[in-house]
Predict the structure.
Amino acid sequence: MARAYTPSFLAQRLVQQTLNWIFPSNDEPCPVCSRPIPAQLAGGRPGKRDAMKQLCAFCQQNLALVPVCAQAVRMRADGRPMVVTSALVYDHFVRTLIRAYKYDHVVEIAPFFASALAATRGAHPPADVVVPVPTAPDRLRMRGYDHVLLVASSFARAEGLPCARALVRLGTSGRTRSQTAKDKSRRLRELAGQFVARDASAIRGRRVLLVDDVVTTGATLATCAQVLYEAGAKAVHAAVIARVE
């Protein structure tokens, strides 16, 4: 999982941990809402081995109340059927969670998203390998971590499957900004050539499960699936955290 973080992000976390050690506080802030966590509760938490318990009681309760509504839809990729399963509805609270995870460095939410994906287990066809949809290079540099890879690798471990970084995204995210306002055909045109296979041996002859954060029209998934088929994948289906309805 360490490969999902950039060196600069890890350095920032190390500096913050060092400052917390030098200037200790009785109350630690919740990484999601910044509410102070009483010292007696923070002291009993197992730390990095259980990241969800680093959240305050309010956020843990809110996450526990998020309904997992698994849904499977069929679409086509490279002329073949592809089942796309989703775990959550992209409503206001889920959107807030995903934005905090992607843009505010709240990586502690990743295990929750991975567990949500695990709840869709019976909705998608069997797979041999999990492949995350890669993050654009400029986004990776800006955030300091690959948010989809973090969730995909955690989900793959829970499923007992390998997680292969079989795709690379070229260029920048500028061409695909504000994708929710575009139709599928336009997005397919803009995504053409954006993804290439980096490790065909990891997926050749295997059933691939693509993992992404949010699905709107499905253009990104279809484009990635086509590249994977061209690289020799036997079948490609997808699982995403949330769906836009």
Notes: Residues 7-22 form the longest helix (16 residues). The radius of gyration is 19 Å.
